Amino acid sequence: MLNSRYLEQLHPQKLSLDELVAQSVIFFVAGYDTTASTLSFATYLLAALKPRYSRQMREEVDAAWKKTMQVLVFLASKVNSVMKLYNE
């Protein structure tokens, strides 16, 4: 396990507040992009190759969504308004 003295020898300088904020933004954006791509590809594969699994997962997501949206009333109303614009 790495101890703090060893880490200080490797990186003796500390990040400024601006650098810390910039690094945090980069981590957030990079994580969001890769997660979105992975979920999109996984959803496509499930829909194309395993429709039964896709249906089951959608039912689970719908149930969790309804439960969450009961708590987030304002957010739910705005999401529903947007969904009305692009209803299939």
UniProtKB/TrEMBL annotation:
Pfam families: p450 (PF00067). The keyword Lipid metabolism does not apply. It comes from the Eukaryota. Keywords: Heme, Iron, Membrane, Metal-binding, Monooxygenase, Oxidoreductase, Transmembrane, Transmembrane helix. The keyword Ligase does not apply. The chain crosses the membrane at residues 20-49. GO terms for molecular function: heme binding; iron ion binding; oxidoreductase activity, acting on paired donors, with incorporation or reduction of molecular oxygen; steroid hydroxylase activity. PANTHER family: CYTOCHROME P450 FAMILY 3, FATTY-ACID PEROXYGENASE. Belongs to the cytochrome P450 family. This is Cytochrome P450 3A31 like protein. It comes from Argiope bruennichi (Wasp spider). The lineage of its organism: Eukaryota, Metazoa, Ecdysozoa, Arthropoda, Chelicerata.
